[in-house]
Write a structure and sequence with these properties.
Blueprint lengths: L1 E7 L2 E6 L11 E9 L5 H4 L9 E2 L4 E8 L11 E4 L2 E2 L5 H4 L10 E2 L17 E4 L2 H4 L1 E2 L8 H9 L3 H11 L7 E5 L3 H12 L4 E5 L3 H10 L3 E3 L3 H11 L5 E6 L4 H8 L2 E9 L11 H7 L2 E4 L4 H13 L11 E4 L3 H9 L6 E4 L1
Parallel strand pairs: 11-12, 11-14, 12-13, 14-15, 15-16, 17-18
Antiparallel strand pairs: 1-2, 1-4, 3-5, 3-9, 3-18, 5-6, 6-10, 7-8
Helix pairs in contact: 5-6, 5-11, 6-7
Length: 351
């Protein structure tokens, strides 16, 4: 099969790999029908995160089950499934408490499972899925979604679930004012999540007209292009002299964390989901003095997918709008370049 491999900074290749097979009785083999490039994939692409050896990459995909191990339950060959961005057992204390990203048997796409077997990356033609019963989510009643539904289903594997996590951590809801820092796919999904939770006013911080348009479509009532002190002042002006009740940090840099934290009113809440890239530290004394609540981290997508899936299937949300480019798998190197150069918000790959 063909799969995307990262060799080092700026070096993405699509190469031949062995087609996956069932290795353990809890495995499934999924034929990938859609995958994508994530903003967090850009950290190794840019060299921020080291690549020590050529590795399969990609952690967001949907597809059709081709084969199953003898111990897999609740799934059948031919099912359309969504794969959250990590593998989880569903049985350990963390999974039972909904924190599937801290599973005792946690494994990631492109790494190895708890038995030491290699796990395929999501940006390929097929993937062996360990712990399939607890990891995969079946899409009921649909085997061949149209292009729009396919895109929205794919967002549930990561970016929509992550935006939802940020909104929950920031306590977005009815009567609350919200600021979203970051206009990538996660930030835009954060706008949609805040709207879905009933937020009254949503300010998207964005400097790009195409992203601003999607933010407004998703429910943003205001756009702030300014940054730093000017951005804080603009938020305060829009909100009648006060800062926001809820702020979503969806980037992961020191600058974005500072921008987000200084946009929260005393007694408000911030949810951070941007993958930290170094330098972004939490000023504990500032939190103490202002009584700001802060939460977030890695989103337990497997926990959130069922409720978000219901809204996607009912047409209440359409997060697939964050995909503004579709490319064949063979053009994965160009997909990375397009996102790195901000020529694309998020690229969907078709194997």
């Amino acid at each position: 099969m063909r799969a995307t491999i990262i060799h080092g900074p700026g070096d993405i290749r699509v190469e031949d790999r062995d087609y996956p097979t069932v290795q353990q009785p809890t495995d499934a083999v999924v034929k990938v029908t859609a995958a994508c490039v994530c903003g967090s994939d850009l950290w190794p692409y840019r060299g921020v995160k080291p690549t020590h050896k050529p590795s399969a990459i990609g952690h967001e995909f949907i597809g059709t089950i081709e084969s199953l191990g003898d111990e897999v339950t609740g799934l059948a060959v031919g099912d359309l499934v969504i794969a959250p961005f990590v593998i989880s057992c569903g049985e350990c204390p963390q999974c039972r408490n909904g924190v599937t990203v801290a599973c005792d048997r946690l494994a990631g796409w492109g790494g190895t499972d708890d038995a030491g077997h290699p796990v395929d990356g999501g940006q390929g033609q097929a993937v062996r899925v360990p712990l399939a019963s607890s990891t995969l989510v079946k899409v009921p009643g649909i085997t061949e979604p149209d292009d729009a539904l396919r895109a929205s289903l794919l967002t549930l594997s990561d970016v929509m679930a992550t935006g939802h996590h940020a909104a929950l951590a920031a306590q977005a809801g009815p009567g609350r004012t919200v600021v979203v820092v970051g206009d990538g796919a996660v930030g835009l999904c954060g706008v949609l999540a805040a709207k879905r939770l009933g937020a009254e006013r949503i300010i998207a911080m964005s400097r790009h007209a195409d992203r601003q348009a999607i933010a407004r479509e998703f429910g943003a009532t205001d756009i702030v292009a300014e940054r730093g002190d000017e951005g804080i002042a603009k938020v305060r002006e829009l909100l009648g002299g006060v800062l926001a009740d809820s702020v979503l940090e969806c980037v992961g840099t020191k600058e974005s964390m500072d921008q987000a934290l200084r946009s929260v009113r005393p007694g408000g809440a911030m949810g951070f989901v941007g993958v930290p890239t170094g330098g972004a530290e939490i000023p504990v004394r500032y939190l103490f003095d202002t009584n700001i609540t802060i939460g977030g981290g890695m989103a337990p997508a497997r926990t959130y997918i069922p409720e978000l899936l219901e809204d996607v299937l009912n047409g209440r949300i359409n997060p697939g709008r964050v995909f503004d480019a579709v490319m064949p798998l063979e053009e994965a190197p160009e997909a990375y370049r397009a996102m790195d150069e901000r020529r694309a918000i998020k690229v969907l790959l078709t194997p």
